[in-house]
Amino acid sequence: MLEARQVTRLFGQKAAVDHVSFRVEKPAFIGIIGRSGAGKSTFLRMMNRLTDATSGELLFEGRNILSLQGKSMRDWQGQCAMIFQQFNLVPRADVVSNVLHGTLARRGTLSTMFGFWPDDDTLKALAILDRLGIAEQAAKRAEALSGGQQQRVAIARALMQDPKIILADEPIASLDPMNAQLVMDTLRRIHDEDRRLIIANLHTLDTARRYCDRVIGMRDGRVVFDGTPDQLTTGVARDIYGADASFNESATSTSIDGLGRKGDDAYALAMLN
Fold first, then answer.
1. CATH code 3.30.565.10 for 28-41+74-232
2. Most buried pick, 125, 175, 225, 235, via CB within 10 A?
3. Is 176 within 8 Å of 207 (Cβ atoms)?
4. What number of other Cβ atoms are within 10 A of residue 113's Cβ?
5. Is Hydrolase included in the keywords of this UniProt record (predicted)?
6. Tens-digit pLDDT profile for residues 79-117
7. C-alpha 264 chain-centroid distance
C-alpha cells in the first residue's frame, strides 16, 4: 500500500529526514513520535508534497508520489488530506464553507471565490459535520468555535476530500486534555469505520499507546523504533527521546534533562514509569 524507501530531506548539510524506510501493507492508525526537531513534520509534509524530498522514493499503490508534478501532484494532494496543529481554517468564513474547501482540488477557482457550492456538496458537508457531532455549528464563523471544535471542522474538511490517506501533524498539541481526547476519538473512529490509513505525529507516548496500531519513533531524522504500542518500554522511550532524558514518578512535575522544556515529551516519558 505505502512504502518509504530511503526518504531523505537535507537543509544545507543538515538531514532533517535521514534515509527513512518502512512499509505499510494495509490501512492502519500509525503514530509517529519523537522530540521536537526529530523530523516528524518534515516527513509528513514530504508525503503531502508540501516539501520536496532530497532523495528516496515514497510509493503509494506502486506509484512514486515524490516524482509527481503539476496536475498529478495536485491530484495526489486531493487523495492525501492534511490536518494541521493550528487548524488552517478561514476564521471569518462559516463552518460549512470551511468544510467545502475540501473540494477545492476538483473545483474551479471562480465558483469557489463567490461561494457557489453545488447542493450535493453542501449536503455532504452537513452530513460530515453531523457525523463529527458539530452540525449545529455549521452557520457559525470558524473563529467563534473552541479549539477542539475547530480541529473537528478541519477533520471534516479532510473527509470532504474523500482521501485515501489522512495525515495529522500534531493535531492535539494546541488543545486541552478534554478536547484532545475528543479529536483523537474522532480520528480513531474514522479509521475504524472507513478503513482509511491515518498517520499522525504525536508528542505523548500515552496517546500513541492508546490510539495507534503501530508506532514509529524518530530521532535526529532517523527511524529508531517501529513496532506495536505494547513494545513502547522505558528503554525504547530513551532510545527515541535520548539517553540524557530523566523523569520523575509524577507526570505533572517531570522535566527532561537536555530538552530544555517541560511538557509533552516529559509527560510522555513519565507515563511509562
1. no
2. 125
3. no
4. 8
5. no
6. 999 999 989 999 999 999 999 999 886 665 555 565 677
7. 16
| C-alpha span between 187 and 117 (Å, rounded) | 26
pLDDT tens-digit map of 1-23: 999 999 999 999 999 999 999 99
| Residue 260 region by backbone torsions, left for phi larger than 0, else alpha for psi between -120 and 50, else beta | left
Distance between CA 186 and CA 163 in Å, rounded? 16
**β-strand partners of 114:** none
Retrieve residue 10's grid coordinates: 537535507
Place of cell 500515552: 206
User: Scanning the structure block, which residue is given the C-alpha cell 494541521?
Assistant: 84
CB 191 within 8 A of CB 104: no
Q: Is 54 or 254 the better-scoring residue by pLDDT?
A: 54
Q: Report residue 195 as a C-alpha cell.
A: 478503513
- Spatial CB neighbours of 223, under 8 Å, sequence gap ≥ 6: 20, 21, 22, 216, 217
* CA dihedral of residues 173, 48, 36, 182 (deg, nearest 10): 20
Give the DSSP letter of residue 115: T
Given this model, what pLDDT does residue 130 score? 96
pLDDT score for 250: 32
Give residue-wise pLDDT tens across range 231-245.
Answer: 988 889 888 987 665
Across the chain, what does the average pLDDT equal? 86
User: What phi, psi does 28 have (nearest 5°)?
Assistant: -150, 165
Crossing angle, helix 119-131 and helix 147-160, to 10 degrees?
Answer: 130
Tell me the β-bridge partners of 58.
4
Domain boundaries, the chain: 28-41+74-232
User: Whole-angstrom Cα distance, residue 15 to residue 220?
Assistant: 8
